[in-house]
Design brief:
The structure is a homotetramer of 365-residue chains.
Chain A lengths: L4 E2 L4 E6 L5 E7 L9 H11 L16 E3 L3 E2 L2 E2 L4 E6 L21 H8 L15 H19 L2 E9 L2 E2 L21 H12 L6 E8 L13 H10 L4 E6 L10 H4 L3 E2 L2 E2 L7 E2 L2 E2 L4 E7 L9 E4 L5 E4 L14 H23 L15
Antiparallel strand pairs in A: 1-2, 2-3, 3-7, 4-7, 5-6, 8-9, 8-10, 10-16, 11-16, 12-13, 14-15, 17-18
Helix pairs in contact in A: 1-3, 3-7, 5-7
Chain lengths: 365, 365, 365, 365
């Protein structure tokens, strides 16, 4: 419970710093007998990898993962799977100027007061680089859930800065650096180019879904499926808001509209976002998150130093002008980790439950 | 970890059903030596209590709490504090008609598939009545945090249905049944009266804050303070969205605006909502949540029964037309439970940390 | 994790003090759909109940259990089962003389230093009375394991003071107040009578077994089945030693003798005590524990008071001259709780594992 | 909670297999600001290392540890400390003959039934090699506890096979390969030489202590200090029994003897072994464990294969003829991990407790 482990039955313990020798994680609780190779994990790591377009940080990290344990003759053994990613392209001297001052919007100030010591190189432990092990663990969960339930996790960007991105098709998502569900991203590219020239940054809104959900995942009272989703998403660097289903729009809805009707063929809408009473309905999970603008910008900012005196901070180094651009594979991974945890938990306590009437799924989504 | 315990070091285990003999909780981990009586807890229970205005359910529950353990000669002993609330005003026959069908927007369908059995009386375990033990536990946390750090938790309603409620003053909040921070709630009353006549329901938006926060609470990587806040809030019945600080508005903000500047006198804004890198900054925690419209309405709804056949559901019984109206004391309690957990955790691992420069607080909030 | 919860998937949270208003527990994680009434639990509580022979404390407690939640129409619902036992026969004034001094062998001194406050009435939280909720929870686990796997838990006394008790038959155990597996307990009664006259107390050795174990329960590396058994047993009041299988005798055994051979018909011995590599073999679990002599004796003892000054302590009140006499139902319950936890855990992670060759069992035990 | 993490506030997650690429652990919860280098850890690893005398396995492993994270400029940062040990001297072909049969006394049979798959090379996950990461983590805990409280952990062998080893002095322990507290180990060497010639193995009894304990560590009801010690010790490979203080001898003791008297100068004996009511008394922790004889012997044993047919097993490879010989540094590490966990936990909940009268310590031990 010391803060760096995600989940209980499928427990992912994350370690490392941005400019330390390595980052990685240990996955404890993966069921045995599943085929697993480094390639299964590398695919999602590559989707998250920096340096793949001009719109993201130019740090060049291969993010090559090594499986250290838990796999024998190509199959998981039910014992811990340790994953190691060596850091390759640190430029720690970029951070000397901020070692004694606090960047606005960053964790510098809070780490310093909490721990009394902080590794300033690349943000140390608070760097978004630490999402790589999460993505790696998520890839393992995704594979198991796909094989077991046919579950599919998909995410896309729905807004960047003040540009709302319409949903055209999931097919477009892999074809542009924004994970945008549109064919033409020229407007997005122009927007990012102008932002970069201005030395500024912007936020983004990301949608993430799970299709093929079993009914019954989630534990009332407190450990609800949506509670754990909110925990996972808000725990991601830079996230400031989480919505399930209709989200904040539900405030102004009437009950006669919001409550999703049921028919023998399925639910007739999905304002619930796939969760009722904290338990999955079998409909798609529908989650949206707000990501704040990157705090590392070259625009000078007013701040203080570790002596409490006024100073001005300019953040150099290599940074994403919109951390939301690379967020999609990460939020897919986080959603997969939450579902995995609850899938195993459901087997523990309710493995004997059988209903005569099979679950219904939404027909229209 | 079986779903009904909130927290680890300050662990609240909740039990009971809406129409069972009793509800309650066991608090494990309250530090010893704090003065505690039933009156300390009853105050917040009374704020949440049903039947106190025409705008909420008319179920008449005294919600009288009994301390069963953990207190000796008026002081906490460091051992578990068991709190018991007997149910007094059940009308279980109101629910006979829905025992075999699933109310849209309710947990009926998911409980039935998850557990293979459900207590339909008053929603059973999924009833909002189970927030009473949470409020009781929160009152204990609030008291300790107030005595130890001077922490104050406050909440208010900021929107009901499509009526946005401006913030006038915290002083108004206790003076109206909506927990609205305005002097004149006539418009809100009219709105609720017309809604009730229409047999419909609406949602609400609630704001909750903590003032007097210590710096340094929250555990990166995963168990961030804001992650745990999101977990707590999204785990509350009917919540569909959670925001910290600028929330979804941060998507369209520029980094040069969003990142809160620091000066020797304090932070100059609070877009962060009091959390950076998952750790408290010392500024006020600022949280907002979206509550969906009540699902229990007398308007007939299309649904299915446990045989999978079409049916129509009309929900009688006594219900809140807007569950958000009574939500404020609950979200205060939840925020207090999260802060309490992290306050204890901080002592465990970082008790020796001392900085020469004292933490700064926001001067303007 | 705050010390008063046993288990994770089948989590039992215990509350109460010896002379407070009530004791009890909340069981979180019991699978749904099992028939359960108070009578199912009362049976084991009655086996542990004080006042049933002249050899145990004369405190008269009916220990009547009330189910407060988690059961609907006679079946478990998968939600928390709260169990309440009101204290009935407190004589708190017996303890006024020890409120300011520390009884040797008791938890008085350590509670006082740990918590800075202690409830001296009947030992408060450290009283063996708090094993009653454990027994109640164990009864629920036993019932589920019996129905699901045909598991049977049995315990007996194998030594009291310096009298070693031979094993004649399980059939004798319910027929005497010692839970001794012998037909004739006259020697034991004489021994206890003389001890009582001497104002002294003695220890006991208890054996507890589980028959009908599934193969595969237990989690390497740390959360081994035998590790959790040792945790459970050593956590019981007054226990000073735990053995699995051959126990301390294995030190002097040769490897060629100790390692239990396997044949197609089963294991040929059970030095392992039913656990290899932390995982159940399918053989009977065989556990032995040492219980120290009761610390509450009327013989005057040298001690100190809360001011650190020398004093003499005589413990009046009503006490068991050998706490081991009533220990058997408790250790059965503890073993059942450990097995229950691992049975659920096994379903979570290894539900898909199937071997062509069925497990073998020991044929001779 | 998936089995491979030890502790909560000081959580050690262990990974790796005997013949995989690497073993290691992640320590989450180490307080920040402590000086730490690889040399601090290597010392205890070297004490446990194989190949250092003719009485232990001849596998040659340098067990060189690499710190991957959590340390910055030579100090702990409060973030996870990942420790990596590459395996260097595997001879996996030694194990081909046992891949399809089950060695008596080994975890082969139980792993195969639990997981449906097992890594037979060197015992895979069930190998005693996996105690190396535990020793490494224990070295970190030892260092913190030594600096903070002056705590010292010491262990020694007290029996090997049927030879009881008298206690002469702690000073002798580092001077012989048995960790025996005697000056002359010729008899032990002769015993082991004859055993090795016979192709057999033997057990051992180990004592481990902690000196300088603070009063007040341990959580009643269930998570008692002695319960966690028993969990830790019984969870170690090959352990079949655990005693605290007087252990099994307390069965035949009278209460008037067993209960340790207190005087203003300290406790007058230590039958309690440093724990009363599950909480440390400030006296030395006194723990003894029984280790079974090594199961890997070259004497042919009767067994079955994975088809359930009779077979004979001869275990070749390089093995310790008495696994107890190298156990001492491991049990010291385990005891340190338990104390560390409870030391942090005590700070969380009882940091404000102060007693006017300082704790007493035993004067004579």
């Amino acid at each position: 419970m010391s803060g760096n482990t995600f989940g209980n039955l499928f427990a992912v313990t994350n370690f490392g710093e941005s400019h330390g020798p390595a980052i990685g994680c240990v996955i404890d609780g993966c069921p045995p007998g599943m085929a697993l190779t480094e390639a299964d994990i590398q695919h999602d790591l590559d989707r998250r990898r920096p340096g793949t377009s001009r719109h993201v940080t130019q740090r060049n990290e291969p993010d090559a993962v090594e499986i250290l344990s838990g796999v024998y003759e190509g199959k998981t053994t039910g014992t811990p799977i340790a994953l190691l990613i060596r850091n390759a392209d640190q430029r720690s001297k970029d951070y000397q100027n901020i070692a004694q001052s606090f960047r606005p919007g960053h964790a510098d100030y809070t780490y310093w007061h909490k721990f009394g010591i902080r590794d300033p190189r690349g943000g140390g432990r608070s760097s978004a680089r630490l999402t790589a092990p999460t993505v790696a663990a998520g890839a393992v969960a995704k594979k198991w859930l796909a094989e077991k339930y046919g579950l599919v996790f998909r995410g896309c960007m729905t807004q960047i800065g003040d540009i709302v991105i319409p949903f055209e098709s999931w097919d477009h998502v892999p074809n542009n650096p924004f994970f945008a569900p549109v064919a033409d991203v020229a407007a997005l590219e122009d927007y990012m180019d102008s932002l970069r020239k201005a030395g500024d940054s912007c936020g983004a809104k990301i949608r993430v879904t799970a299709t093929g959900m079993p009914v019954g995942l989630g534990e009332p009272l407190y450990d609800k499926l949506d509670a754990d989703i909110a925990f996972a998403m808000m725990g991601l660097n830079a996230v400031k808001g989480v919505e399930i289903g209709a989200g904040f729009a539900s405030v102004a809805q009437r009950g006669s509209l919001h409550g999703d009707s049921l028919s023998p063929q399925g639910f007739k809408s999905n304002n619930a976002g796939g969760v009722l009473g904290g338990i999955s309905t079998g409909q798609d999970l529908e989650v949206a998150i707000a990501i704040k603008p990157t705090s590392s910008i070259i625009t000078p900012r007013e701040s203080i130093d570790t002596a409490g005196q006024s100073t001005e901070v300019v953040t150099k180094g290599r940074h994403d002008p919109c951390v939301g651009i690379r967020a999609t594979p990460i939020v897919e991974a986080l959603l997969a980790l939450v579902v995995m945890e609850h899938a195993l938990r459901q087997r523990a306590q309710n493995a004997d439950v059988k209903q005569d009437v099979p679950p219904i799924r939404a027909s229209f989504l």
